[in-house]
Give the backbone structure.
Amino acid sequence: MRSWRRGTKEMDMVLGPFSDTELAALDMGDLDLYDTLLSENDHDLYQWVTGQVKTPEPYLNLLAKISKHAFNSKGN
């Protein structure tokens, strides 16, 4: 629910589909990190996902997965 009701439509469209299809495959460490990520500001998240701003180190691998999913899902 928190992935689909972010506050900005852009992040709803990035995190919602990712959570629907990919969360079940994440290990406990990545799930905990994803939970922490959800507390971040949407403006910051969007800039990290789109590469406009450097992603903080703890989120690098997870946001790479999220970004890859978002860009591979475009138009589907």
Notes: Residues 12 and 43 are 12 Å apart (CA to CA).
